[in-house]
Amino acid sequence: MKLRLIRHATLVLEYAGKKILVDPMLAPKGTYAALRASGRRERNPLVDLPCAIEELDAPDIVVITHLHFDHLDKTAAARLAKDVPIVCQTGDDVWLREYGFLRINGLHKLPVSVQGIRFTRTDGRHGRLLAGRMAGYVSGFFMSAPGEPVCYLAGDTIWCKATAEAVKKHAPDVIVVNAGAARLLFGGAITMDSGDVIKTCRAAPGARIVAVHMEAVNHCRLTRSNLKEKLEREGLADRVSIPADGETISFTPPPGKERE
Questions:
Q1: How far, in Å, CA of 213 to CA of 70, rounded?
Q2: CA-only gyration radius of the chain, Å
Q3: Do residues 188 and 221 lie in contact, with contact meaning Cβ atoms separated by under 8 Å?
Q4: Which terminus, N or C, of the chain has the lesser number of Cβ atoms within 10 Å?
């Protein structure tokens, strides 16, 4: 498995011989207005793509954790082939058909196999109390295939009962967390802050953690350097990768999975 962070939550995974595009936000820097509820004025995205957009045009599978603009934007919806297989949460499939997509797998309870890769949906919690209710319904997805590490794309969630249960049940080898401590004018963080990343590490001592979703949208307050500093203080820095935009990380399957 290879994971390339493009920007924010947008990833390209090389997994089981397939190219998987996750949560594509593909517009140029400054295309969208600042999030009014963030209390900040910077236009989004805050940074440009680290590669030519054409490199992202032909995935084998697209995974969309939820339909906020920073996980599927208008640029991506217009550019992607309408017959690309999409994995999403139930309910978002209705809206994706409005965009013209034809091969949509809306997951709720049952897993689905797409091009030899098994996808299983898990619940998430997009913040606490009022902030979480306002931010809406989100999901994470587990991916598994013979010879590959089990990968958990946690999505826009804080650490909560649902994520703890998912980690315990599925025992992932790689966990991708959307950090950034995104925050609106009311309530607390609506994505993982440094404390949530630390809890993830401790709940999954055998997993490699990858922290993304930072420094690209104006409601994210936790920076890469802040997160690294806090992980170092907890003795966990060697457990967490914090990739730069455009950076690729490779993962090998744990012993025994090479033959599965």
A1: 10
A2: 17
A3: no
A4: C
The one-digit pLDDT tens for each residue of the chain (260 residues) are: 999 999 999 999 999 999 999 999 999 999 999 987 777 889 999 999 999 999 999 999 999 999 999 999 999 999 999 999 999 999 999 999 999 999 999 999 899 999 999 999 999 998 775 554 555 679 999 999 999 999 999 999 999 999 999 999 999 999 999 999 998 877 788 999 999 999 999 999 999 999 999 999 999 999 999 999 999 999 999 999 999 999 999 998 777 655 44
Asked if 211 and 225 touch (Cβ cutoff 8 Å), the reply is no
* Domains in the chain, CATH or no CATH each: 2-253 (3.60.15.10)
Residue found under tokens 């969630």? 157
47 phi and psi, to 5 degrees? -135, 160
* CA separation for the pair 180, 134 (Å, rounded): 18
Q: Which amino acid is at 188?
A: G
